[in-house]
Amino acid sequence: MTTILLYAVLSLAVTGALSAVILYFVSQKFKVEEDPRIDEVFQALPSANCGGCGYAGCRNFAEAIVASGSLDNFYCPVGGANTMLAVGNIMGLTAEEKAPVIAVLRCSGSIQNAVPKIQFDGISSCKFANNLNAGERRCPHGCLGLGDCERACKFDALHVDKETGLPVISDDKCVACEACAKACPRNIIEMRPKGKKDRRIYVSCINEEKGAQAIKNCKTACIGCSKCFNVCPFEAITMKNNLAYINHDKCKQCRKCAPVCPTGAILEHRFPARKTDVVGEEANV
């Protein structure tokens, strides 16, 4: 019996040793050498793994850059220009400078501005409510206020204000990862340039209904009156489907559009207060 056990143990040992040798040679033959620059690029990235770059995580992003050998169409929104400059130095490439962007809420349909139509008691999810067309407010395009964008944000940069029912985006914390924009089923969050001194002008409405119906649903809706379009000296405003849109690439922030908007649908973010003349009429600064 002892001899049989000894032979069994020896057989297993020999089989294991042979298997190890075979596996070693197979691994050597088929091994893939990883470019050391992948680790260097990965270390230069912020490790946010937010997906804002279009890849599953920072490691995948680093692998894609090294495999491409180019920085064209590659950008880390969290790290921004400084991070891409560091990556460019590692790769021996020149990183294209891009203006920083930020998430912007294109809706002013707060609890105060948009007329309630129902009391929604379903699942607290914008996606769920949108599929049922069951938002509490009348506007079929406006914010549902159920917080999908807030839950998607990994950087604590966005919170739904209980007083207004609308998300509030922090200029200081937003890293432009686009997670909130992707989570919004009504596409009311847009990525726009932060602007010099964080100043931005945009139409805070996406409702394409005709004026009378739009204003019935929300007091601050764009009614497609074209007044802003007519007053813009830089052709930065377009009118389409009863809705005005400000092209940030053409806008010179002259601020002529906002005062003529009859519903206040055009928002001016972080601009100084307008001066008033002796008769109380506003004048551009």
Write the layout of secondary structure elements.
Blueprint lengths: L1 H29 L6 H8 L13 H11 L11 H12 L9 E5 L20 H7 L15 H5 L5 E3 L6 E3 L9 H5 L5 E5 L6 E4 L7 H7 L9 H5 L5 E4 L2 E4 L10 H4 L5 E4 L5 E2 L5 E2 L2
Antiparallel strand pairs: 1-4, 2-3, 5-8, 6-7, 9-10
Helix pairs in contact: 2-3, 2-4
Summarize the structure.
The chain has 285 residues and is α+β, with helices and mostly antiparallel strands.
| Coarse shape | elongated
SS element count, helices: 10
Q: The biggest beta sheet, please?
A: 2 strands, antiparallel
Number of strands: 10
What would you call the structural class? Answer: alpha+beta
Q: Would you write up a description of this structure?
A:
- By secondary structure, the chain is of the alpha+beta class.
- The protein is 33% helix and 13% strand.
- The chain contains ten helices and ten strands.
- The chain has helices spanning 2-30, 37-44, 58-68, 80-91, 126-132, 148-152, 179-183, 211-217, 227-231, 257-260; strands spanning 101-105, 158-160, 167-169, 189-193, 200-203, 237-240, 243-246, 266-269, 275-276, 282-283.
- A two-stranded antiparallel sheet has the order 1-4.
- Strand 9 and strand 10 form a beta hairpin.
- Helix 2 runs antiparallel to helix 4.
- The longest helix has 29 residues, at 2-30.
- It is elongated, with a radius of gyration of 28 Å.
- The N and C termini lie far apart (102 Å).
- 32% of the residues are buried.
- Mean pLDDT is 89; it is low at 277-285.
Which characteristics define this entry?
285 residues, alpha+beta, two-stranded antiparallel ribbon, 10 helices, 10 strands, disordered C terminus
